[in-house]
Amino acid sequence: IESKLGADTWFYTKRCLLALADQLAKQMLLLQQESFSEIILFLDDIDRHGSGMTPFYGDEVQTEQGISKSSKKGGETISSEARQLKNM
Question: Are 12 and 56 in contact (CB under 8 A)?
Fold first, then answer.
């Protein structure tokens, strides 16, 4: 997951998960418990590997130490967004 995870792939993954949550909330779709378990495990992996990545594409700046940080305020990371999705 770590090699494939980035702002652009996370954006499209997040869109799919939000669409699924919308369908579930409207009770237009039913999922088995196994599917929910797999989604939670996937979000756990994203949480583990996305802690240093910004969810905003093209919004990184280089610091003096060479570490990439987001110039957006709030310190959002892919990991924090995965935790928010998991809490839905």
Answer: no
Tens-digit pLDDT profile for residues 31-54:
999 999 999 999 999 999 888 787
Q: Among 58, 66, 73, 83, which residue's Cα sits nearest to residue 6? A: 58
Of 49, 59, 62, 67, which is closest to residue 3 (Cα–Cα)?
A: 49
- pLDDT tens digit sequence for 62-76: 444 444 554 455 668
∠ CA 62-67-69, nearest 5°, is 65
pLDDT of 71 reads 47
- State CA 75 to chain mean position distance: 14
- Spatial distance between the Cα atoms of 7 and 78, rounded to a whole number of angstroms: 8
Environment class of residue 10 by beta-carbon count within 10 Å: exposed (0-12), middle (13-18) or buried (19+)? Answer: buried
